[in-house]
Fold this sequence. Notes:
Layout: H1 5-25, H2 34-59, H3 61-91, H4 99-127, H5 131-151, H6 164-173, E1 185-188, E2 191-194, H7 196-220, H8 226-238, H9 240-247, H10 257-279, H11 289-314
Antiparallel strand pairs: 1-2
Amino acid sequence: MNVSLSVWLLTVAALCVLVAADFFIGRKPHDVSLREAGIWTAVWVVLACLFGVGLLVFRGGGPGGEFFAGYLTEKSLSVDNLFVFVLIMAKFAVPSQYQQRVLMVGVLVALVLRAVFIAAGAAMISAFSWVFYLFGAFLIWTAWKLIQDARKGGHEQEEYEENKLLKAIERRFGVADRYHGTRLWVEENGKRVMTPMLVVMLAIGFTDILFALDSIPAIFGLTQDPYIVFTANAFALMGLRQLYFLIGGLLKKLVHLSYGLSVILGFIGVKLVLHALHESGVHVPEIGIPFSLGFIVLVLAVTTATSLWATRRQEPA
């Protein structure tokens, strides 16, 4: 899809306005109610759907279908990522009224990282066709790893562990013994040290890098259009903060989500390998976007239904 520079600039400007509005609305620390989270989650979903419908109307079924397939995939991966956010919040005992500020910064960092990764991925794809083999193999490996993790108990038995880089930063600058509102730096005993708030934000940022390694190859398996890749990622991420508060209590009920995501990632990995073989001149069938979109929707629907059924059976009568 040929997108002019003016459309790119207009899209980025519109997204920046939406992010600024979201930040302005949640600028004051407070406990987010289910009603507030529900309203804003619905707003972000409606905006994403309107954008996708706009692509369908003005650009055709191909780009529109690619956007919706990419958006659903990225949104599903984002929901799985919320498990890790919950672990990080619990690890650092983030007060509930400050959690939305942490998530807002995490989303902003993720948006910047995704833009960088998308630009790098697009450049690699345009220069080296064999990158599709690499992306496909990586997604298949990730799918297998998700299944292995799910068999071991998944997120239920996990506890967030700080990586070596984060620990080194903490040793270098020191960390205050308590939260000081939303402040990132304070002075203790004449020394400027980090607050736990900054440590949490760094932990979220480092985690965002790992998330991008999975999500970018996945969406490039559905579309190679950088504009659709970027917008699908942006819309999937921008409602993540509200979604955290809306389904925080429901995350434990999505017990089969990792299995569903592994099926989706494995499917996209196979799709990428088939596309790579086709590009190399090998006559193999390629998987179209309508089938991909239907498959993703079906897997997510089945995963949600079986998860709710399994958790309901485990509840005491």
